[in-house]
Structure prediction request, 718 residues.
Amino acid sequence: MNKIADALKKPVIRILAAILLGLMAAGVILAIAGYPPAASIAALGKGIFSKPKYISNVIIKSTPLIFTGLAVAFAFKTGLFNIGAEGQFIIGCLASTLVGVTVKLPAVLQIPLILITGMAAGAAYGGIIGLLKAKFGIHEVISGIMLNWIALYLSNYVCMLPAFRKGDTNGTDQVSEAGRTLILGAWKKTGEGAAVLKKIPVFGEILLKTDANIGFVIAVLTAVVLAILLKNTIKGFELQAVGYNKYAAEAVGINIRKNILEVMLIAGAVAGLGAALYITGNSPHKVTVLSAFEGMGTNGLGVALIAGSSPIGCIFSGLLFGGLLYGGQALQYEVGAPTEIINITIGTIVFFVAIIQGVPKLLEKYGGRRKGHAE
Amino acid sequence: MKLKKLTALGTAAVMLACMAGCGTAAEEESGFSVAMITDTAGINDQSFNQSAWEGLQEFSKASGVEVNYLESKQSADYVTNLERLGDSDADFIWSVGFDTADALVEVAANNPDLRYAIVDNSYEDTPDNVTGVVFKAEEPSFLVGYIAGKTTTTDHVGFVGGIENAVIRQFMYGYEAGVSYAAKEMGKEIQIDVQYAESFSDAAKGKAIASKMFSEGCDIVYQAAGGSGTGVIEAAKEAGKYAIGVDRDQAYLAPENVLTSALKKVGKAMSIVSEKVMNGEDFGGQTLSFGMAEECVGIPEENPNMDPAVYEDAMKIAELIKNGEITAPATEEEYTAFLESLK
Prediction:
């Protein structure tokens, strides 16, 4: 028993156990619903790994989730629950799209401009939450949720304004070719480029048939930068100190209010950067009227939770989320199980991640006592 | 120890699962197969996508063809879902909803050997391996407009649209023309209120708009607003007035308060086209239009809330539309011309 308890103290093992349990729970639910659990889980695996382009799509799908995961995890390290990542992402999408469709610059200027716009918009939106908290003590969860709704309806309103709406569609125009962060984006659309790519075995298919973009690389870089910032800088120490015990931090002279504002600015900027890369790197490269939240931010909460708020961990848990969400559609296609099963699986994994942290303690206590009786 | 065994068991189960899965996956299905992707409204939208999928299922029952679908959760899913269907053994792929139009063009260009069709979109320049399928929504709208005009006691009816675009305008002008036709027939004036919910999924807003219309004297409101439209029906239920359903027979949402429904039998058109494609016909590069004559639009046969005499009259109008004596207007120009012809 104690061995298991020791093993479960390691975060990686704990999380892997939680994932396994989550999948098993999904299997049980599938069996109850009348779908073959074995074939279903196999279909899930097939939907993720059976073709290079699927793996590429998983990475593409994961990218925005890694960013929102980072936006949540970073804020969480300093004791703030950034439920507003959804809104920061939406505003980032909106701002970067508006700039992308109205400004016409060459790619070398256009792409950085769009990315910076997205970051600035996300930061500003996150900053509102930080400001409300720092100035008036309004809890970030309350203001975050409210600002999410404001973002949703603002985005829906703005993209239907005559100035931005494209023809009869439900959205804006597409971000111009120069503003896209696809790898070889323009070239592969030409007949010549497509012909060349078709001859290259694995990468040709990935480039040609998926929206392969630079987002993932930037996501990894962002995670590394945030990890270094937290671990190796004075600022990071200050931020974490506020997270661990804000009264202690204040006592040693750390300005809590300033730190809260800064954290939310950075978290918002990360979400906004993810949004800008999502718009520039994924078709349809535009904002449409959303009927509901797309869940980028809420999934980001799950990503951060599974990662234990570690920025590097967010990369992997983001990939897990992306894989489950993308592969989950194959589950539906292959065995006919509803895609909601995937949400149940994700929910179960997050649930197990949360409760499994207490298991080592329980095992030690419970297991130890039993041993005492036996001896 | 117990836990260890459990984990071992779990691992074994997963491995077994993989093996079993690979076994079934290796079996190749022969014969024709048809697949579709939904737009972001999802497969259980009570409307368009659901009708499409029901149509394919019926087609499958009748012909033994294998059918399947993929649900899109975000607009970024359209391309990846269409690509995934292209990898499966689907011979004919449907893309449901005009929202998917841009994605389909992209995918169709990447997969020139595959055949696609899109519901509710006509391209200006249709790719060679894509067929557009559109509906004369103005025809059933004209019919329900006529019925509304004949039924109203306050001489005041309403229309709630989703987001204003060419497709929804077909519904609106068809309806307005139908109401005007009935008004002319009975020699009176009927006021028509029109408002848009600016959303296809905001039931609360649909309800608010319809409630306002009812309180201002409308007694029948027609809605072409997707999910927002269910709010209109709810408002009719609360006000004790009538709503008119759209796309599918929506009487089940409020059996006492749904006067009739303007059917757009997406599924039927899809099975007609799928069957023809299965039998070797090729409509690539074309846009097909389905209306009353093809029996792909209309009203339900059972309308318990409707005066049987009105139903009789409506059926006469349906005949006139079918044989072309009445052309229901779909655009503003046609509508103005239609009003001129009534005078």
In short: Residues 56-293 of chain A form one domain. Chain A has a mean pLDDT of 89. The radius of gyration of chain A is 22 Å. Chain A touches chain B through 55 residues (CB under 8 Å).
